[in-house]
Amino acid sequence: MRIEGEAAGRALAFDLLADGPLEELSLRGSGEPIDGRTGESFAAEVSARLKPFLAQPIVEIVAKISGVDPAAWSKGAPQAALDLGVDLRPLADAPDVLGGRLTLRNRRPGAADQQSLPVESLHAGLRLSGDELQLADLDLRLSGGGRLRGSGLLRGSELTLRLMATALDARALVSTLRPTKLAGPLRASLGINQQLLELELRDPQFSLDSKIAIKPTEIVVDQLRLSTGDARLVASGRLGLVDAGRFVVKGSLKNFDPSRFAEVPPARLNADFDANGSSRPPLTLALRFQLHDSRFRGQSLTGSGEVDLAGERLRKADVELNAAGNRLTAKGAFGARGDRLTVSISAPRLDPLGVAGDLNGTLLLAGTMKSPEVSADLRSARLAGKDFGEIRGLDLAARLGDGKDGALSGRLQLSGVDLADGNPVAGKVLFEADGVRSAHRLRGQLALPGKRDLRLLLEGGLTTPASGMAWTGALSELSVSSLASKDKPFVRLAGPLPLQVAAARFSAGPADFVGPTWSARLERVFYAGQRWQTAGSLRGLPLVATLAEFPEWFDDSAIGAAKGSGETLRLNAEWDLGNSGDSRASGQRKVAKSSLPTGRLRLWRESGDLSIGVVPLGLTEGVVSLLAKDGRLDAELSLRARNWVS
């Protein structure tokens, strides 16, 4: 008998076969995905011997399930490759009781913060009698060598666990935490209407105590205490699971150094804090904190704050932080007519805080989130960090008034921008804006590496539809100068390029670009949420001249190979690529279809030749075609030369 159906969106088929007389019946079954093209590795096998007319009808049950990936069955679940085995048979000394073993193996364990399951294996003895299932000799092995051993009892709808933890490594469970060897008791009571968890874990450096209750309407943390040496974090709170999701949390820090627990900068924090609000839209938050006798990266740290947020309105902000001689304040309100928020920063030396340089200025906000009024003045001689690179000579002055005729003006100047690896992105940068909110111009000039300049002009206006602020206009001018010619740019915009920009949405095109001897057309570029699309064409691009324009990326050997022995190679191209932006199940996990492009790309030789070393290929034809569809990428390469064909 074959049974087909779906479970959690998975199309499955089960085959069952019965054999033997009714007095002693044998059953065998197997399950697998219906559509093998999905790559689903899930498979199941079960065998059973039954004597239906006896008081204990089960003689033996053996079940094996392999290739179970929780992420393929439940959205947000971790990825894993689980093999599960169960065998049950009557006990010799108690025929009405079933006994056996439960085994589980994870072939792909990993840390929880990397969307993996930090479990390697599970073994337990089973004893089933009536509505009671006993778990004996339970042994759960975790990533990093940690173990949970003990026993459990499932009675009715409640599972009670009594476990002892040994050598729990926090880093193996969450990769950003410090290594530990925690040990201690863990008690849990897991029922339909309430789950209780209590743990007391210790190692030579750390201790963790917690009591948590999960109810249908809320999660209650009666106690959370994390300590090491004289440092500790103590907190309690509750989170509602229905309606607005109300939450309350209260706690304190004493000599708390987060770098002892995670890979973050060292600190010594002494603070009291409390917060309450709602976790579901519209978000509300009332937060108060007080820092005293604290240090960050060895520097003094003090401060206090009170924040009252209700949806899109910040009803009150009164925050002041002082660290290593640097000061940040935020005072006022924002989000309604008449509100005014002032953020001031005076940071003459950020180096002790892990960012090289300085930053000084003031930001004034008024109006609403959908139509803010802004006044900003920022200055910095230098700002540098290992993760974002370096900017020099920052000088910003910007104004945005209220209403469609509110004044818009600004000037941003930089003397240099470098990437994190030290490579320069731009020398002098200058942007200047003037006009009103509904109609303005932004002119920019960037000094690029290799003594090249990029110049642009944007013209358009801001609107405030119900969906939020948007900008509609055009890129009216764009040009990039050439290293080879002072008279002709390497590329310039032939006519205005229509643009629309909004939160999580962008569109551009159509427009034409021209070079000294080549051209390109951008039909469209579109992005909204997870959806994107682009289409365009390229004609007569000279490969050698293009590579020579970017000596910082291509050396002489690459340029020499492209030269050939005669006419330089010229390329044409056409593309139409995009995605649908939805999701589907694929393989052993759910893959966002937005990550799987669809469409076509074609690149072909217009004229010219390539060489390998000093040997010309003698190309007469060259075509590369790519077709992406249904998660597949098909590629075709065709080359023809005077003396060979492939």
Specify the biggest β-sheet. Answer: 6 strands, antiparallel, barrel
The averaged pLDDT comes out at 89
Number of helices: 4
| DSSP strand content | over 45%
Structural features, described:
The chain has about 650 residues and is mainly beta. Among the domains are: about 310-450; about 465-515, no CATH class; about 515-645, no CATH class. Helices cover about 5% and strands about 65% of the residues. The protein contains four helices and 48 strands. A six-stranded antiparallel β-barrel has the order 34-35-38-39-37-36. It has a two-stranded antiparallel sheet with strand order 42-43. A two-stranded antiparallel sheet has the order 45-46. A hairpin with a 4-residue loop joins strand 12 (about 180-190) and strand 13 (about 195-200). The longest helix has 8 residues, at about 555-565. The radius of gyration is 33 Å and the shape is globular. The chain starts with a strand and ends in a 5-residue tail after the last strand.
Quick overview:
This protein has 646 residues and is mainly beta. The protein has four helices and 48 strands. Among the domains are: 312-449; 466-514, no CATH class; 517-646, no CATH class.
